[in-house]
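Problem 3 from the worked examples.
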Amino acid sequence: MADTRATDETSDNTGGNHSSGDGNPESREVEKIRDLKSVLVTSVLNLEELDVNLYRGTHHWVPRSRRLFGGQIVGQALVAAAKSVGDDVYVHSLHCYFVRAGDPTVAVLYQVDHIRDGRSFMVRSVRAIQHGQPILICQASFHKLQPSPLQHQFTMPMVPPPEDLLTEEQLIHLYLTKPNVPEKLRQFLNQRLANEVPIEIKPIQPQPSLRRPATEPRKLFWVRAQGHIGEGNMKLHCCVAAYISDYAFLDTAMLSLADYKAKFFASLDHSMWFHTTFRSDEWMLYECESPWAANSRGLVQGRMWRRDGVLAVSCSQEGVFRVQPVNHRNKL
């Protein structure tokens, strides 16, 4: 993923039609930046209002599983919920259940129910619907900021800054230049490159091999949204963070298992807590760990840290795993 982040100058002029002029490379780069911003904000998480408290999402990013990406459904559900509250409240948590696999060939309807409007908190329930049935149920809570002397947090892990690390895409390109890369791994990495994901990742300890040794189920990587989103709309940054939070999260539980692969895995639920202001288009450290796995299920927990060491977001997710040995052969 090329680093084509917009400057404040270009981001202030995104309206109307833009011509590439006489083929000036700089003009084409500005066009690319504007297009990228449009994909992130006005397409990936954009919803069409059909009626009061009823929205439709049509732009889908489909991962290798060929099902809808859970992070996008969570992010769009939060967008729908946020449209029903005022500017004086901020989302502080969401809790979602994935109840059916999403169909990438049809639109998703989002129906918002007003559960409670209190003096300090507001609660919304959102159902994501396809083929007349819910595929996700989301409860989102919003809060009016209330300063308090009760304040504490964990300490951010010490890691190299993102400027000293390569992106996931750069690491894959570098690895593919090496001789004797197994063909199966080469195909896998080329598939990763073909998936155009609107986020950037810089792993702290990259491991490109398919045959990984068993390690502590914990990983860290820097992450940010591609393109420029800007300040001012904290709810939008939370929606983008919801999208980001589901990427490369659940497979943390597989790190403790050597010589096995997941022939199937899927998210069962997803929860997030938003602690303070942040920008999803700036680097955040995503700390992922799995405290437990058994009975074909695994639990993962995550923390997103701002670069200044402030804990911005906490996440939790449980998934179902069907695993098999790497060298498994069907006996026919």
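Problem 4, a separate protein:
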Amino acid sequence: QDPDSMGNAAERLLGLSPEQIQELSKDILFGQLRLVIAMMTIEEINSDRDKLLENISNNVDTELKKIGLKLINVNITDIKDESGYIEALGKEAAAKAINEAKVSVAEQEKMGETGKADADHQAIGKAEAERDARIATSMANSLAVRGENEAKITIANSDAERREREAEALKLATAAEKVQAAKALEESYVAEQKAEAARAERERSTQNANIVVPAEIAKQKAIIEAEAQAEKIRLQAKGEADAIFAKMDAEAKGLFEILTKQAEGYDQVVKAAGGDTNSAFQLLILEKLPELVKTQVEAVKGIKIDKVTVWDGNGNNENGNTSTANFVSGMMKSVPPLNDLFNMAGLNLPSYLKGK
């Protein structure tokens, strides 16, 4: 079906049971059927069945579309009225057909039976008179029936309008209920979302209290301990540096005192030498002479000679010495002389120590 019919069905038939829909369709069908019959003459109804079917189909289909239904087919099996007028019209038509057939036969037979034709004509006249009487009666009855039908049509239209309004009210009530249910569901969803958000915030706060806060405390503790350790190391290093500085300062002061005393001693030596620095130098060398001699002696002290065997043939060398004397003399010459030792040190041995 088209969208309009589906929309009409949703508006008019929503909430109705199949029996209620069938009853509503039946009322519309009979109401439109009465309306079509009231709009046509009895002769048209009896003679023009196609027009009758067309009018019924158009009117009924139009009204059914208003509630979302569609007319599929219309069939008329028979038409009767309480007065028998329609039946009389049928008989009249049949009689006309018969008479026309008889007239045709009579004409074909060259009107051979004139008397019979007159009798038939009289019968036809009588039938026509009866027909006119019955027509007049049927017309009166039809007017009465038409009035009744119009009244019934008015009642049917009123019932249809009432049911239409009831269906509209039911539709509005159903729609309002659905709207309220949707709003309630929406509010429920909003409340659930707020509850979930609150639960998530509570969970986040719990996690923050259980994890973040202890971690932050541990972090601050580690920072404080590290700063304390660093301060301890700085103080320890400063103490060690101060100790080293104090030690070196003491050593420097001690060395300064030693050098100062030595300088004062050297000054006294120079004064004792009558201001002659060379004589003062010789005095200092004289002071160190025992150590120098000791050093020279130490050079040969470590030589171990367990046994010396001399084979001497009592022969003399060119210098008149024996081999043994030459050996001892050469060994003594191998020890650095004291004068050479002073020369290597950049000093001059006094002449009275040179043996000259």
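Solution to problem 4. The mean pLDDT is 75. DSSP finds nine helices and no strands in the chain.
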